[in-house]
C-alpha cells in the first residue's frame, strides 16, 4: 500500500523531484523482504484478561511491529509534507478534480455474514487472509463467509474483518486498472476504518495495521464487558435538545444508583444534519429510546455493536492503545488522511499516535470530515469517491452532507 501511496503522492510532486524519489524507491525495492517477514509471532485471542495483562501483552506484541520497515529518509518526509496543505483542509491539487479520487473506509456495524465472497478470487486478497490467519490465530475468512453473525458482531472479530475486507476492496479496485487508486488525493476511515486509511496512505504496513486492530479490538471488547452499554442512531428535529437529552439520561442512571463514572451518555458519531449516534450505559440508551419524543427525537435505531464506543466507557481500551502506539514505528502518510478526532489532516507521526488513542474515547466527527474534504467553490467539480469495504453506509451519509459529491461516488463491494 505504501507503493500505491507513493504513486498517488507523485501527482503532487514536480517532475524534477520525481526523479530523486524514483531512485529512492528503486533502492528500497532491491532490499525489500517478503511480506510474511514483518511479523514473528502469533497471539491467541484474549479472554477474560485484566487491564494490567492487556497492557503487558500489548507491549510485548508490538515490539516486533515495524521491525523490518526501512526508515523514511528526511528528504521524503520533507517532500511529503511540503507538497500538500497540512492544515484542517483537504489537499487541493492542480489536477482537475474530476481526475482525482477520494477513498473512504467504513467502520464497525457494516459487517455481514458473507463479506469477502466478492473479492476472495484475487490471489492478493487470498494472501491477505492467509497473513490475517497467522497474525490473529484463527481463520478470519471463515468467520467472514460463514459467521455466525453473533460471533461476527463481537468487536474482537468484526474489527479485523472490516479492516481486512476494506483493504481487499482497494485491491479489487486497483486490479481494474482504472488508475483510480493511484489518483487518490484524500482518504478517511470511520472509527476502525481510520487504521485502514492510514495503511492505504502508507503510514504503516498491512501487517502492522492488523496487529494494531487486533490489540484495539480485544481491548475494546474487554472494556465492553465491564459495563452494560450500547449505541443508538437518533434522527431528530431541528429544535431537538440532544445535549439536554444526554444529561437527562445520565441523571436517570444516577437515580438508578449506577456509579457516576459509568453513568455515561454522549454523542459518539456526528453523521449528517439532524442525525447522530449516541452511546453510553445501557440504562441511559434505554431511557432515551423510551422518551425520545420528549426530546425532539423522531426515530431511533440500535447499532449491532457490543459497547459504547467513542465514549469515556472505553478508557481502558484507550490506555492499551496508547501503550501500543508508543512502540510502533509509523511514517508520515503520503496521502492526506483526515483524523476522526478533529477532521484535520495528519501532519506528523506524533499526531497519529496521540489521536488514534484519543479517538477511542472521542466522538467521530464524520460530518465535519466530509465538509472538509468536499468543501470547494460553487460550480467546482468534486473528485470521484469510492467507499471500499462492507456495506455502503458512508455513501448514504455523503448524500446527506454533499449531494453533488455523492453523484460521482460508488461502492466497491466485498
TrEMBL record:
Q: Name one Pfam family in it.
A: Acyl_transf_1
Listed transmembrane segments: none
Q: Which family does it belong to?
A: Belongs to the type II malonyltransferase family.
Cited SMART domains: PKS_AT
Enzyme class, top EC level, equals transferase
What Gene Ontology cellular-component terms does the record carry? mitochondrion
What name does the UniProt record give this protein? [acyl-carrier-protein] S-malonyltransferase
Q: What are its GO biological-process terms?
A: fatty acid biosynthetic process
Signal peptide coordinates? none
Q: Tell me which residues make up the Malonyl-CoA:ACP transacylase (MAT) domain.
A: 104-409
Q: Which UniProt keywords apply?
A: Fatty acid biosynthesis, Fatty acid metabolism, Lipid biosynthesis, Lipid metabolism, Mitochondrion, Transferase, Transit peptide
Main location group: mitochondrion
Q: Where in the cell is it found?
A: Mitochondrion
Give the metabolic or biological pathway: Lipid metabolism; fatty acid biosynthesis
